[in-house]
Amino acid sequence: MRQTIDGAAFRRMMISAAASIEIHKQQINELNVFPVPDGDTGTNMSMTLNNAVADLKKADNPTLTKAADITASALLRGARGNSGVILSLLFRGMAKGLKGAESCTGTRFAQAMQEGVDAAYKAVMKPAEGTILTVSRLAAGAAVDAAKENDYAEFVLEQSISAGKTALAQTVNQNPVLQKAGVIDAGGMGWITVLEAMLSALRGEDIVAPESGTEAPKEKADFSDFATEDIKFGYCTEFIVSRDTDGDPEALREFLNGMGDSLVLVDDDEIIKVHVHTNNPGVVIEKALTYGALITVKIENMRLQHTEKVLSEAEMEQQVAPAEKKYGMVAVCAGAGIAAVFQDLGVDGVIEGGQTMNPSTQDILVQINKTPSEIVYVFPNNKNIIMAAEQAVPLTEKQVIVIPSKTIPQGISAILAFDPDAETEDNTQAMTEAMQAVDTMQITYAARDSEYDGYKIRQGDYLALFGSALFGTGKDINTLLKGLAEKVRGEEKEFITIFYGADIDEKKARKALSIFEKACPDAEISLINGGQPVYYYLISAE
Predict the structure, then answer these.
(1) How far apart (Å, rounded) are the C-alpha atoms in residues 320 and 371?
(2) What is the pLDDT of residues 205-218, one digit of tens each?
(3) Which helix (H) or strand (E) holds 34?
(4) CB 5 within 8 A of CB 155
(5) What is the pLDDT of residues 139-183, one digit of tens each?
(6) I need a surface site. Which of 13, 54, 114, 379 has the fewest CB within 10 A?
(7) Among residues 90, 82, 168, 78, which one has the least CA distance to residue 129?
(8) What pairing do the DSSP bridges indicate for beta strands 462-466 and 439-445?
(9) Containing H/E element for 307?
(10) Which spans in 375-476 are helix H?
(11) 143 in helix, strand or coil?
(12) 495 strand-pairing partners
């Protein structure tokens, strides 16, 4: 049985945790109560953990303190969704508890787990029972008790997992929403999956993630993924040489193949054009001159370019725009039409994100820092992005205020209440009140079969939401639209805006408009091509 955990072991434990979450993420996702397509718990936890793994793999023989600090920092900036943020908080507190340690026994590790729980509870304004918080709290408590009996780290983690599993099974009875759906908490299951993987690695049974088909393509190359010294041939050498002799280009090709890699050689009757990566550009050029006169030549130091590229990208992400005005705004949304609305309202920066693509804390932080203002208001416009936005607040020198908008209509209504001449506190209050006064309706599709609150939902059916509640489900989208329109008429709303999504053409959108015009003849109704994914319609009424 393993008594202690050192830096190498902790790194392996975290890599195994990320691999296990990746393997089980769909199983965790399917515990989400609503079957709507969104940034599900398993997906967000996986993306958050993988951010830490990328940094841990670059660390050379870290101490326990260093490995824990790397993990905490990477998770904080890479946190996505509420589950990812809470996960980052658990490990941030754990890193604090392991500060200064080369290694630790079960007692120190149990105390660190408890510090993680304390950090998570402190950050969540209204902790709810029957969630990952409950499971982590009881698991940590069991670890502390176990350490009094046996100081071996492996034993402590075993007992922690046993208590955590018992707590996870009880979540179905602690949370009314989970009880209605008859499922355990997804975040709690994710945490148990993490602990079990850490124990497995501690025992020498590392978990390996699938090698293919598990990661989304990168939006751009990450040049920090490999070190400068990993560049085998340092000089990118390109030239065009005239064919003044009867030298055989194939002989030149053979010579160059022995001098480097990434060789491209093109020849015709008059010239030979070459691209090659080599450590000896002078020798390459000298050989080329035996074929004729050089027409063009370019030699670039790729090691230097790589270093400059990594530094410039890091500097860009950390760069803070000077304050040119008092107030600035950042909004999260998806869809070109909706983004245009926010920009027309004066938003300085739009972060692409929402359902199925929750931006990380780092994504939000970068946009905050780019905003040329002293104070930055952030509008998450999704309940699963609010905590990630809040985590960015202490990471910047700017004053950041997160307006906790849960939907696009709430964000728009809040911005409309903004007064550039008002005091900060007055603006915050006005925008928060305006946000709460708007009703949001959404129509999407069921991502899986489910039964909830008396509805039998089948995969592919349309789902209508009114606020956060399920309004109806079925195979006819116009029937759901009529139901929503009737509800709005009953509440005598004056202004209605319909954003139609990427999967709705203008003809269908105008049908939706006519449904609301017929039901609400006294309301002012606007139709906008939002272009949003996932949701066929986003509708606001106030």
Answers:
(1) 8
(2) 999 987 644 344 34
(3) none
(4) no
(5) 999 999 999 999 999 999 999 999 999 999 999 899 877 777 788
(6) 54
(7) 168
(8) antiparallel
(9) helix 302-318
(10) 386-392, 408-416, 424-436
(11) helix
(12) 524
